[in-house]
Amino acid sequence: MSAENQADAKSDMQNSAQNISQDCAQNSSQNSANQELDANAHGAINMQLADGFEVMLITGMSGAGRSHAANALEDMGWYVIDNLPPKLLIPLVDMMTSSGSKVHKLAAVIDVRSRGYFDDLFAVLAHIDELGVKTRILFLDASDSVLIKRYESVRRPHPLQRGGRLIDGILEERELLSHLKDCADIIIDTSTLSIHQLSTKLYEGLLGKGSSTVAVHIFSFGFKYGIPMDADFVVDMRFLPNPFWVPALRDLTGKDKAVSDYVLSNPAAVAFLDSYEKALLTAIDGFAKEDKHYVTIAVGCTGGQHRSVATSIELARRLRLHGLQVTVSARELQRR
Hints:
Elements: H1 3-42, H2 45-50, E1 54-60, H3 66-75, E2 79-81, H4 89-96, E3 105-109, H5 115-130, E4 134-141, H6 144-154, H7 166-183, E5 186-189, H8 195-207, E6 215-222, E7 233-236, H9 257-264, H10 267-289, E8 294-301, H11 307-320, E9 325-330
Parallel strand pairs: 1-3, 1-4, 2-3, 4-5, 6-8, 6-9, 7-8
Helix pairs in contact: 1-5, 1-7, 3-8, 6-7, 9-11, 10-11
Region (Disordered): 1-34
InterPro entries: P-loop_NTPase, RapZ-like, RapZ-like_N, RapZ_C
Binding site for ATP: 60-67
């Protein structure tokens, strides 16, 4: 391509980027007005949006951590597609919003360095907006010096380098993406962040600062049916009296109030839960810092019907008071 043609192509790309910037600004203003109106009318706009469909577009500077961000979103339960041309996002969103779809959160890593992709992105954003699907743009950035070091460490050329200097490719990409960055809902500078810290930033950006980044699953089981192999922690509640030997409680489970009161009113149960709650909070905090986002706690008793079930429910209640996301299940109750 001649220098003149390259200049024309670059000018076209910048014009497309400018169009997107203006369109994003208009949409942002309109969306803000709509959200303010809905919030005044219903008082719960955030909850309403959280219960619907959501699309996250992941973009930004090459080498700033787009792939790592995609992995973090996948850990958070998003359906993630990497290196997707913007035009292909439309059928995916249509499928997501169709009846019976189990995908409610779709994230796509979008590369918009060519003019055609800029135009496609403009059309995609307009189409998704017509569907009433909440869309957010996540932009990953980093300083030029950090990007240079990252590229040198992996010994790969920048996509826009074209045989020239690395810094020229970085500067060209930064200029082309500047308008898209202005449209972003979440901007994360990864210059000084580790992979773990990037994940934490994403959790804070999506869930709010102070929200737990660790999902906890607690399930009860019976030792006589085998110890689960996928648990991070195994708790043995067989040190408590067994409700099975109380005729009035034998046919009930730990979900019943009579059994729960019998188990949890024992001073030993209270003392254990008080101390174990503190230990778990310390461990879960450490897991979050080490980028481990799922913790499984198995609570066992002899048959998995009474003590373990009641303890699991109570432990979950306590952990939720600390803002943790906790789910509970009972492995052995299906055996009844």
